[in-house]
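Allow me, if you will, to draw on your knowledge of protein folds for a short while. I am sending you one protein, given as its amino acid sequence and as whole-number tokens for its backbone shapes. Kindly check, if you would, that the fold set down in the tokens agrees with what the sequence suggests. The record follows directly beneath this note:
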Amino acid sequence: MTMTAGAKFRDVLAKRGLVEAMAAHSPLSAMLVAEAGFDAIWASGFELSAMYGVPDVSVVSMTQHLDMTRAMVDRSGLPVVADIDTGFGNAINVLYVIEQYERAGVAAIVMEDKSFPKVTSLIAGGRQEMVRIEEFQGKIDAARAARKDKDLVLVARTEALIAGLGQDEALKRARAYEAAGADMILVHSKQKTPDEIEAFVKAWDGKAPIALVPTAYPQMTVARVRELRKIGLLIWGNHAVRASVGAMRKTFAQIRKDGGIHGVEASIATVEDVFDLQGMGKVRDDEKRFLR
């Protein structure tokens, strides 16, 4: 029997003790994540918002994110962890959202306990309003009720540290979300060092593995994560789109400066490289086989 995406995710976790996911925002970037050897893909809401050129404030619709996530599942071959923000509404919305994302073939969903519409977590001075614990437990209950495959991984994300509510509140929410049936707990921080997160991990007394997104504190390496022992999912949250922006800016500026493309050819992917990613070799072979 073919393993579901959720089962594949759980298998990697069981065998390696840690699932390492890289962000992507398109099928092409998802294919490059797979090529690089990561365990999974983070279908990032921030990255998709950036790709559309709009703020990460629940402007991108569920349908837009779902369509892109489905395409990443189809083209990458890796388990995809879907960033569904706040669940696009209340618990009733979550029932539909889980049904649709599971049908799209994702391995896991991450849902956060901020109010809808949300504001991106790492922006300075951003509005970070939290929903009541009981309301978010209802969303977790809805997600559990909606999933058909019990291996679909439900990750409950608490923004208590982002909102400045402190360790006690973060731990209280994490325990409540585990009690409601979350498979993993994601705790987020915008501190520039790992101290706040490490304090949370050391105080965590639940059984659910912890997920981290160490964007703000890059000192948190894979080796350091493994030493903490309680981490099951490590997400590199936005490095695909940031790398893309940097590379495009540099290339475009060089072409403007040189008055031509001759100065950039050696530093960018060849057309043949892109052809390979697109599968043009198979198209050529199929044409020879089927076109008469």
In short: Strands lie at 19-24, 40-43, 80-83, 108-112, 153-158, 184-187, 210-212, 231-236. Residues 133 and 173 are 6 Å apart (CA to CA). The radius of gyration is 20 Å. The chain has a mean pLDDT of 96.
